[in-house]
Amino acid sequence: MQTKLWTIIACAALPVLNGCGGSSAPPPPAVAFNCAAIKDFSLANLSVIRADRVEANTAKPADPFSGAPVGEYLPAHCVVEGAINARTGKAFSMNPATFTVSQVDASYAIGFELRLPKDWNGRFFFQGGGGLDGLLRQAVGVFDPQQGAAANALARGFAVVSTDAGHRGTSAFDGNFGADAQARIDYAYNAVDQVTLKSKDIVQRYYGKQPDKSYFVGCSNGGRQAMLASQRFASHFDGIVAGDPGFNLMNAVSNTLTDVLAVAAIVPPGATTPLGPDLGKAFSQADRALIGSAIVGRCDVKGRDNLADGIISDPQACDFNPQAHIPTCTGANDGTCLSVGQKGALAAMTSGGKTSQGAPLYSDYFYDAGFGSASWSIWKLDGIPVPLSPALTLSLGLNQIAGMDGPGKVFSTPANPGFSPFAFNPDADPAKFAEFGKLANATSTDLSAYKSRGGKLIMYNGNSDPLFSSKDIVRYHSALSAANGGDASSFARLFLVPGMAHCSGGPATDGFDPLTAIQTWVEQGTAPEVIVAKAGPFTPWPGRTRPLCAHPKVAVYKGTGSVEDASNFSCQ
């Protein structure tokens, strides 16, 4: 998973909300800063493990995925750790020497961390998870490590909660909980519901009132949780931000496994890992750079973009075809061409997995500037070995289906040959994931309950996301609009991020503030037409800003002024 969940520009960009220079609601009554008293709260099926007082500036917020300290400020607050519905269940266990898998007893509970600021702004913030969860991340609502004090929701005065989604693992890719039916339900949706209810009970008892407004912000699996909340738990949140959401989760898992087949077919002989072909050897670094530059060269000035700036603002106008627009190697691959097999694999990954009859398993993808970048490659080709594979999509796909089709199939070795990703059957195997898909997918367009209570939803997606397709969420947005008389913009808006990979990274202006955007919409009634985004230090153009436009509009250069400044672009 990426080392940050989503990114922002400092509050100074939009100084309209509490914590950013103003307040749209009166502050709640002052309360005694007595954290220890929380341990005495009596709530059914809940145990408070700790309730500690944290003084201002005594700790730095941690990145919700890497755990690395970021920023410079935390306010005085109480940190509460709790467990809901503790029980004993089953889990998979693998013998690392033989790779054999068995089921063992395991302790389960829906764990959460809740942080309650001394100076509360009257608002509640649910920090979405990521991957397969299983980790209890610091509940501070961190956005961008570069933004310091302005970057976390806790510093803005929100009460912030996070959850492990009902199980603990060795990493966010640990699918051993899949052996337990209740753990699968908790991960799919129940933890969001239970943690929200219990956290708000604690907020009520501690502050003497319920939150004035409640928000959910998440990316990846956190984005899936966010969309699911708008569909299943309409009364829980006033504003929801769903970033790069895995809302069509199990279909996307099937797609990752067809990617494995396409890439494995062109891996050079002898390049292997303990699981099989080493996918990272299918494309060299020069090959990947060639892919990105060829796509930009073809599509950077297509459609409404019409500006050669390294950003494909209008992806739907991109007509890139690897067969026609990348030279074919006639001899050795010297970085200026791709082999016929490499072109075929790239086309297959972009068109999406299909059955033998040509029926799509998930979705196709936009060709975009981030293809071949490190943030794209880490998922498709050569990420970190978790647990045995060099590609994150393979690791996530295998672990995601743990327990969905019988014990042990997450681990495939000569000693345990139950399921091999390299023998994935696109005609038969996707049906085996359908039961869990019914629990975890968040594809419903019936948001009538959420809409009727005034809820607002912002969705965003990176156009170079190699995992969850921007084309898929565009189709969802279109279907949502159709279900609402052809226009859902009064309560739901979609923002596409050119060049951005999964939640962050890539040649993109991926630094933006979704919390202020959703808060302004909910509390002031101003719907976001534009969200200003900033390029990070590792992009080709550090500090560049661009408007992210509410779909279907795209950023168009006005014709004068610096192309590095968002103010010289309009949404058309």
Q: Provide the spatial order of strands within the biggest beta sheet.
A: 1-2-3-5-4-6-7-10-11
- Beta-strand percentage? 15-25%
Tell how many strands the DSSP assignment holds. Answer: 15
Termini Cα gap: 34 Å
The profile of the biggest β sheet is: 9 strands, mixed
Task: List SSEs in N-to-C order.
Answer: EEEEEHEHEHEEHHHHHHHEHEHEEEE
- Shape category: globular
Gyration radius from CA atoms, angstroms: 23 Å
Provide the structure class. alpha/beta
Distinct helical segment count: 12
* Range of helix content: 10-25%
Extract low-pLDDT stretches. 1-29, 145-149, 384-390, 399-417
Mean pLDDT: 86
Provide a compact summary of the structure.
With 572 residues, the protein is of the alpha/beta class. The protein has helices at residues 181-207, 221-232, 249-264, 285-299, 322-325, 340-351, 374-380, 392-400, 434-440, 448-452, 470-482, 514-524; strands at 46-54, 77-94, 101-117, 123-127, 159-163, 213-219, 239-243, 272-273, 276-277, 456-462, 492-497, 530-534, 545-549, 555-557, 569-571.
Overview of this structure, please?
By secondary structure, this protein is an alpha/beta fold. It is 24% helix and 17% strand. Helix 3 (249-264) packs antiparallel against helix 6 (340-351).
Notable characteristics:
572 residues, alpha/beta, two-stranded antiparallel ribbon, 15 strands, disordered N terminus
